[in-house]
Amino acid sequence: MTILRRDSHRRMPWKNGGGETVEIAVSPDGAGLAEFDWRVSMATVATDGPFSVFSGIDRTLSILDGEGMTLFIEGREPERLTQASAPLSFAADARTSATLIDGTITDLNVMTRRGRFTHSMRRVSIDGNGEVELKGGTSLVLCHRGDVEIDGAALAAGDCLLVSNEVATRRSISGKAQLFCIAVEAT
């Protein structure tokens, strides 16, 4: 288990130059936008416009803060994405643009290289003691709001727990928090 503290996340410009991304984790370590196998990041979106195109990449988005946005993804009906919406998966090489619903938003973005890795993302609310299931492969647990302890590892808002498992495991958890559980698996 590795804790990726909020203050250690890497800030970098968007591929299309339209904003800034906060990179939480990338594999392999230090990989650039053209070489990564998988990547987890947050972005602040302040204006309507096109998304960066990533050839051969699958992506999932979820809204962390703000009212949300409407996504226009090539070949699909427009999708309204808000904090209450389930994470939305789509091909990152499909032409995509967004219209903000009511002002600036922050999103959580998971990307994996198609044919080599797959991923899933789910929102989990914790209030008390329990267990959280982590799938096999690489699991990331982002603490979005609140504070939580997972198997003795304390996470505050913005911190992320990175766990590599050969098989699925259940971990003890306590606290009051909103989390995003991300699983990345080799194909």
Automatic annotation (TrEMBL):
Membrane-crossing segments per the record? none
Which InterPro entries does the annotation name?
A: RmlC-like_jellyroll, RmlC_Cupin_sf, Uncharacterised_HutD/Ves
Q: Which Gene3D superfamilies match?
A: Jelly Rolls
Which Pfam family name is an example for this entry?
HutD
Stretches of the chain forming a coiled coil according to its record: none
Q: Which domain of life is it from?
A: Bacteria
Any idea what this protein is called? HutD family protein
What organism is listed for this UniProt entry?
Rhizobium mayense
